[in-house]
């Protein structure tokens, strides 16, 4: 039984430690109960480079765990059946470039893959990214090249983003700014009481905005009043989330990015109930304002 949390990844130490302990004590397989706000099974990201364990791990929804826990308490014998089709799943990064012949490039990125329908986790960020793409492409006064990236393989610990960084991204010296629209950019908030979550008209505030020190003073006013994003943090490997962490580690000096974990994150319940155009609009407008503010005066 994992503790209550908005779960994201299997490389989380809070998931790794109990798994390692169970296998060290001789478990042939482990069922993880992902206790979280939705009561549903939470899919966990995994690394393709360092598989954590060589024995089966299954994930069970807290709402469905009662009979299994009762059987375990009585030390009943059980059989775990993992049913599925093995194989390869083709994936691709989408990259578009507007070359204005400028010395520097603005990179705007977002993930394009995720677990289940991921309407709020992925869809709201893609909507923000597309709105920014239209705005950036239509500007006739832009003094920067623009590179738009929608990276796949996010659920494999940002695999597509890593490939883009290694093989296709402009060099840090040639990049004016990297803007990343990560998970749960505009997700619905919910009341947590009673037998089921009850929708609220506002956005889930559990989202984080980070910006590098050279631009943070111009980014903060742009996001004033946008719940959760108004408390902009200085971007670092410790505070940034998602693909932006790798961007900073790769040496890109100027960056803005957001990430979040809403209540139906990584569950089958992340459908169109969990986001809307009304929630997306202020985030897209804030990013536009932040970019415009960085152009009015030097950012460093």
Entry summary:
With 300 residues, this protein is an alpha/beta fold. It has helices spanning 13-24, 66-73, 119-138, 159-167, 216-222, 243-249, 277-296; strands at residues 30-33, 57-60, 94-98, 105-111, 145-151, 175-181, 188-191, 198-203, 207-211, 233-234, 255-260. The strands form 3 sheets. A 7-stranded mixed sheet has the order 3-5-4-6-11-9-10. A two-stranded parallel ribbon has the order 1-2. It has a two-stranded antiparallel sheet with strand order 7-8.
| Main β-sheet description | 7 strands, mixed
Judging from the principal axes of the Cα atoms, what is the shape?
Answer: globular
Mean pLDDT: 93
What count of structural domains? Answer: 2
CATH homologous superfamily assignment of the largest domain: Zn peptidases
User: Largest sheet, order of strands side by side?
Assistant: 3-5-4-6-11-9-10
Percentage of residues in DSSP E strands? 15-25%
If classified by CATH, what would the architecture of the largest domain be? Answer: 3-Layer(aba) Sandwich
Order of helices and strands: HEEHEEHEHEEEEHEHEH
Please report the total strand number as a whole number.
11
Structural class: alpha/beta
Distance between the termini: 48 Å
| Rg (CA only) | 21 Å
- Helical coverage, percent range: 25-40%
Number of distinct helices: 7
CATH topology of the largest domain: Aminopeptidase
What is the CATH C level class of the largest domain, in words?
A: Alpha Beta
Low-confidence runs (pLDDT<50, min 5 residues)? none
């Amino acid at each position: 039984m994992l503790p209550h949390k908005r779960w994201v990844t299997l490389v989380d130490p809070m998931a790794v430690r109990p798994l390692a302990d169970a296998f060290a004590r001789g478990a042939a397989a482990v069922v993880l109960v992902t206790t979280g706000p939705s009561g549903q099974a939470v899919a966990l990201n995994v690394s393709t480079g360092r598989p954590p364990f060589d024995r089966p791990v299954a994930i069970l929804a807290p709402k469905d765990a009662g009979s299994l826990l009762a059987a375990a308490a009585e030390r009943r014998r059980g059989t775990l059946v993992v049913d599925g089709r093995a194989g390869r799943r083709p994936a691709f990064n989408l990259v578009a470039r507007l070359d204005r012949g400028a010395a520097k490039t603005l990179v705007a990125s977002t993930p394009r893959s995720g677990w289940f329908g991921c309407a709020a986790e992925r869809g709201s960020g893609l909507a923000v990214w597309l709105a920014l793409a239209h705005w950036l492409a239509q500007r006739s006064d832009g003094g920067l090249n623009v590179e738009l990236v929608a990276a796949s393989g996010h659920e494999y610990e940002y695999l597509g983003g890593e490939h883009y960084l290694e093989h296709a991204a402009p060099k840090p010296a040639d990049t004016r700014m990297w803007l990343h629209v990560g998970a749960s950019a505009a997700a619905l908030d919910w009341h947590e009481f009673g037998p089921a979550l009850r929708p609220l008209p506002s956005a889930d505030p559990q989202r984080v905005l980070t910006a590098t020190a050279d631009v943070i003073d111009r980014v903060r006013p742009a996001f004033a009043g946008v719940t959760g994003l108004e408390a902009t943090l200085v971007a670092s490997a410790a505070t940034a989330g998602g693909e932006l962490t790798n961007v900073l580690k790769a040496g890109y000096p100027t960056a803005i990015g957001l990430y979040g974990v809403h209540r139906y994150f990584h569950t089958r319940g992340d459908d169109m109930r969990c986001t809307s155009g009304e929630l997306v609009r202020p985030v897209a407008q804030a990013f536009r304002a932040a970019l415009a503010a960085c152009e009015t005066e030097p950012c460093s």
